[in-house]
């Protein structure tokens, strides 16, 4: 098997389990490995063990036979139907059900993954990578489909727009969760085109801080957010996953305080008092304050130093020293971020959520707060502190002269020039724009580069390190046998490839999603400062979409194809940013529109009541417009919704036909109409004297059949007419 | 049959159709009457015709046999299940299904009413009272159950609180829609108790416009609104109607522009372009403006005149003249209201909604706007125009001197006293409070009286008029025969009672609901002016609840028991009023708190920025608190929700058991474990040379069974350990 062949075929392998035993003693590791094989065999999985790199065994797993899988698929589909994800119950004949609706690759992989990882009482093998007794199971991953990946990259890099079919393709291969990320980014990209067009126009003709652009930007954000919600629903129907977020999976780490009988199912379930969780959630407040203070202090300090150096300091090395704060930020911020994110994760774990979705939601909220501070605080400081209060604050920035004192030649360089009085210093009107440009262009490019280049370098460096080490080991004589030493020659190329894939990182789609949401934030909050923001993002995202595809294919393990029917908690973040944008945009427009210079650092020039009135009105107009857009969007019909309704209709129709046809048509009433003859009256009288009569039967037996009622009514009508006419005539 | 007996029994009558033929000529009327009887007989209804008052025939209707009804009930229940209202499909055996879950009275009456009124293609008789060919059908009503009514009134008037069982009772008799009104009012009443308590406390100790009371009031409104939403959901589950609002009934008057093929059902359906409806909806804007202007002008003029007379005018008859504006308001407003409501109805019809619920929603919105202006504009004028801008505006009120000029003795009496300069006139600080007290006490009492007494007087007057007329007719010789002339003696008392019930008005629950929502508005918007508001409402609503029950029993025809799962569009009005309350309360507190006098008519005394800041912050705190309350309430478990979940769980369990038990347990894997002997290896080699081998089969055939994988893995682990150890030692 040549190298290119090895890339073409996955040899029917469904999953590879990387079992690493560096830390455990060998007897224990071997025993646990046996247990692993047994557990997998128990759920109908076939295994093959091969040697892995650096004290690891690669265990290849595949489904022993289709029959094994069918049961699982059927169970999964029935569960979906029960939760309302599927509108029709699957056919009761398993094989027929699967033939009617064949598995797609992502569904197959998801079900097998669940088979491996689900707890034993839910019918899985209960393998939990890196946790508990399965600590040695380093990872469980599927093998890349290199032929498909190559086609994918090729196709995307040669087309301007992605079609829905392209997204379908991703969904079939990588699952709905990742497909939703690409769908969102693509949708965002499409919306950026008009924004970029209008932005350019505004930049050319409307001048700075144009209220027209501000209105456009707010409207654009609203329409995009609402439209995406609509499209999300549509896609979830198209992909048959609408409602999967309702299927709650219990968190394995949920710790119950006591066991209670579930009032619904009657089962014994773990219980954790909500009261106690609320108390723990209160810790979020000190956490948020601490995080804001820590990140805020770092950012504000750097901001202060930067302002001081660039606008007060006048000594040597000024052009170099001005980069000090950026340097501090780029080193301290990621560290702080990592620490705070870890802390947030621990806090969320401590809050002890019962379901995975509640956990994810709580964690995302915290991470959004951290990102919000890190991404936007700097600009907020410039816009709402530096510019309006500049002349008041800058003199106090002298405290930062410690940072550059060593470089200064004399004291004068460290203080404001007072040659012409205190007014010599003036606000730098370009600072705000430059900062926005930095965040929306430079930072984006750097980010993109980091995303692609850092993992590549890491990978290369790691390979180099291993090479050097094995060379050294070989020189020292005690050469550890290469992992490939005992490979059967025909599998060697394939196993080499698998070993490489085992070393790769795990792809985390939420990180990419977060990046997009943060980017959207710049647009909604600050694009009025520099209307070309959308142009920069348009270019960036065209590349981003392709770079992410590349990243998944080359630099990451093949991701587990999870399902989703939404981009999840980030949707709330989008709405929040849109809303906040209506406040900041109107405030910025109010403060800076006009002469193009805006406030000059003297707070007295800003009419607080006018600013508040502007913000107040713009916010309420925003809410009104959003409601209108929501209604309009909700009225939009879409293929997905039609499909859903059609399915429901057909099921309903079928049920009606099946069941109501069994109902006998009720007997038609005797068509009345026997003439009221003397004979029939006598007959009636005789009948009624024979039967025991009640007032009811007497009342209802006076007229038989509708014809009799009609004729009695007719008589009444005619008689009434006679009686009434003389009176009527009199009244006329 | 005595009179009291006639009240006890309804003689098995399900519905009475009042057929009036005053306007039509008798031949046509008789023909149409025959058609009516035939149509009813066709759907399995038995009929009896009797003479009615004043050129009308009473047609008594009952279901011919239970078999006829069973089919209808079953169909209705299947439809409910299809729309998700019922979680389980009804038993396929009709009789068994009905025995398992017997009909309640309201359900029976609703189904029969639908049988009479539903269009023919939906299986009904297609009788549409007062419309089209059924113009002569004046009304279709069920007969009161007087025994039950008597018990009901007695029970309620002797108990302080209503229990859920009392509400269940109403639901069983009068249907869910009316039951929801009573549930809402009862829930509101219960919430008023703490509000009244705290209000009294605040009134006694906190002084005027207390911010503490303001906070309490806003919080109370939020909790009540959110709690009601929760309770509504709970009751809808309890009553098995959750989701009925999703069952859309087509409006009969919907006019389609063209017929298109429904993409969902494939049926031909009427189509009206949404574009065109949007255009028509735009008419709402001029309508709202016109209504605001008309009502606003009337209210503002009366307000101006009143202020002029009471605070400027100083001539004779002052104490009498001061009632002029109230007189104008009480005459002009109801007239304007009636005209505008009619106009709103016509506008809504013109908007041509497809479903009854969309129509109702659109109409309710318009009616709410009208009510909002009429109820609150006066107080708004006092609080936000008269008090802050009084000294600026009052001099201009001189224009109103035309209204009292005839009564004045000299010019001086028509102008502000300028003896001590312009400052002689001062804001009347009591005006606002007096106005609020007027609306929350006097107006409520008057309203209650009107609701009970006016219909009573109307009924008595009408009876008197008829009596006089028949006496006059008798004197003139041409006496019209009394309607009762030909009654069979034993039915006479019963028929007399039915004729009386036929004359009664139709009960409209939305009017009562609107009254409650408007009342809630005073509490949320203005109760900070007079904290005893809740006390007044508490007393009022205790009586209101009983008076409404009385009204339904005595003064109205028995209402058709419609279903509902919510109080409908009024819920939005509640939320709106709660939100607006957060604005007005904070503004009122800001403006008037402190010395207890508030602004003195000079707008310069109010800091606009501070007012705006107060409102801005209070609104956002409101939104935050509402979100928190929403989350807290959504976490509350309730019997209804538990019931729903339990039902769903049981169905799920049953389905799983039924279907998954059929799935054969997949074959267990051959338990591996054959020792790898020379023989078995040779056997394998032979086998593989016999078969055509692919890389896949070769790869997967190296290890047979999990035991072999495990042992290979074990070997790998042991070997790796040996290879690695020297290197490790070196590294240490």
Description:
Two copies of one chain form a homodimer. The first copy, chain A, is mainly alpha-helical and 732 residues long. Chain A has three domains: 3-143, no CATH class; 152-249 and 283-474 and 506-635, no CATH class; 678-724, no CATH class. The first copy, chain A, contains 25 helices and six strands. Chain A has helices at residues 3-8, 26-42, 66-82, 94-100, 105-117, 146-157, 164-174, 176-205, 211-238, 274-281, 284-311, 318-321, 324-350, 356-393, 401-404, 431-475, 489-503, 509-526, 533-555, 570-592, 608-635, 639-660, 678-690, 695-700, 705-731; strands at residues 15-20, 45-51, 56-63, 137-141, 258-261, 268-271. Chain A has a four-stranded antiparallel sheet, with helices on both faces. In chain A, helix 9 (211-238) packs antiparallel against helix 20, helix 9 (211-238) packs parallel to helix 21 (608-635) and helix 20 packs across helix 21. The longest helix of chain A is centred in the middle third of the chain and has 45 residues, at 431-475. The N and C termini of chain A lie far apart (111 Å). The interface between A and B is large, with 105 and 105 residues.
Low-confidence stretches of chain A: 418-423, 666-676, 722-732
Q: What is the radius of gyration of chain A?
A: 36 Å
The assigned structural class of chain A equals: mainly alpha
Helix coverage percent of chain A? 55-70%
Shape of chain A: globular
In terms of DSSP E residues, the strand content of chain A is under 5%
| Mean pLDDT across residues of chain A | 82
Report strand order across the widest sheet of chain A. Answer: 2-3-1-4
> Largest interface here, residues on each chain?
A-B, 105 and 105 residues
């Amino acid at each position: 098997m040549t190298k290119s062949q090895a890339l073409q075929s996955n040899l029917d392998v469904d999953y590879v389990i990387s079992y690493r035993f560096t830390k455990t003693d060998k007897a224990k590791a071997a025993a646990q490995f046996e247990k692993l094989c047994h557990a997998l065999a128990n759920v109908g999985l076939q295994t093959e063990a091969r040697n892995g790199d650096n004290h690891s065994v690669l265990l290849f797993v595949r489904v022993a036979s289709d029959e094994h899988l069918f049961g699982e698929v059927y169970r999964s589909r029935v569960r979906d139907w029960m939760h309302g994800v599927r509108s029709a119950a699957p056919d009761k004949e398993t094989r027929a059900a699967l033939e009617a609706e064949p598995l797609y690759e992502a569904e197959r992989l998801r079900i097998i993954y669940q088979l491996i990882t689900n707890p034993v009482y839910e019918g899985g093998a209960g393998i939990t990578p890196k946790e508990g007794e399965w600590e040695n199971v380093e990872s469980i991953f599927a093998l890349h489909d290199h032929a498909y990946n190559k086609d994918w990259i090729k196709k995307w890099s040669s087309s301007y727009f992605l079609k829905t079919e392209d997204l379908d393709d991703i969904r079939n291969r990588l699952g709905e969760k990742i497909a939703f990320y690409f769908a969102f980014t693509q949708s965002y990209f499409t919306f950026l085109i008009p924004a970029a067009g209008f932005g350019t126009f505004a930049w050319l003709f409307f001048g700075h801080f144009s209220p027209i652009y501000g209105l456009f930007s707010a409207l654009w954000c609203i329409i995009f957010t609402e439209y995406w919600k609509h499209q999300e629903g549509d896609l979830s129907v198209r992909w048959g996953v609408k409602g999967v977020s309702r299927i709650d999976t219990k968190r394995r780490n949920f710790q119950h305080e006591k066991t209670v009988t579930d009032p619904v199912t009657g089962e014994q379930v773990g219980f954790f008092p909500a009261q106690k969780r609320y108390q723990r959630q209160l810790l979020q407040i000190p956490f948020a304050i601490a995080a804001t203070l820590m990140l805020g202090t770092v950012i504000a300090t750097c901001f202060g130093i930067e302002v001081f150096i660039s606008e007060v300091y006048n000594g040597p090395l000024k052009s170099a020293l001005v980069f000090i704060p950026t340097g501090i930020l780029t080193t301290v911020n990621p560290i702080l971020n990592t620490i705070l994110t870890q802390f947030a994760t621990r806090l969320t774990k401590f809050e002890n959520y019962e379901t995975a979705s509640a956990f994810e939601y709580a964690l995302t909220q915290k991470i959004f707060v951290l990102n919000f501070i890190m991404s936007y605080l700097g600009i907020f400081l410039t816009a709402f502190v530096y510019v309006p209060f500049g002349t008041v604050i800058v003199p106090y920035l002298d405290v930062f002269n410690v940072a550059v004192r060593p470089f200064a030649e004399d004291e004068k360089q460290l203080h404001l020039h007072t040659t012409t009085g205190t007014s010599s210093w003036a606000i730098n009107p370009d600072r705000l724009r430059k900062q926005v440009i930095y965040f929306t262009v430079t930072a984006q490019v750097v980010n993109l580069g980091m995303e692609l280049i850092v993992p590549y370098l890491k990978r290369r460096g790691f390979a180099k390190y291993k090479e050097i080490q094995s060379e050294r080991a070989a020189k020292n004589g005690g050469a550890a046998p290469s992992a490939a030493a005992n490979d059967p020659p025909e599998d060697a190329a394939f196993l080499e490839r698998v070993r490489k894939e085992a070393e790769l990182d795990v792809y985390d789609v939420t990180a990419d999603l977060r990046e997009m949401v943060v980017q959207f934030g710049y647009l909604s909050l600050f694009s009025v400062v520099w209307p070309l923001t959308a142009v920069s993002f348009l270019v960036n995202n065209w590349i981003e979409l392709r770079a992410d595809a590349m990243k998944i294919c080359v630099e990451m393990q093949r991701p587990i194809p999870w399902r989703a029917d939404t981009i999840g908690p980030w949707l709330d973040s989008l709405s929040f940013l849109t809303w906040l944008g209506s406040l900041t945009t109107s405030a910025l427009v109010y403060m800076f529109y006009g002469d193009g210079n805006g406030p000059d650092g003297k707070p007295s020039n800003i009419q607080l009541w006018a600013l508040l009135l502007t913000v107040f009105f713009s916010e309420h107009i925003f809410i009104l417009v959003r409601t209108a857009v929501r209604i309009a969007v909700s009225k939009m019909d879409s293929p997905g919704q039609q499909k859903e309704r059609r399915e429901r209709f057909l099921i309903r129709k079928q049920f009606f036909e099946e069941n109501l046809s069994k109902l006998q048509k009720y007997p038609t009433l005797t068509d009345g109409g026997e003439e009221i003859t003397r004979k029939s009256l006598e007959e009636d009288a005789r009948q009624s004297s024979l039967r025991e009569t009640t007032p009811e039967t007497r009342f209802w037996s006076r007229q038989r059949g509708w014809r009799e009622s009609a004729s009695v009514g007719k008589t009444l009508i005619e008689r009434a007419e006679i009686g009434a006419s003389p009176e009527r005539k009199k009244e006329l």
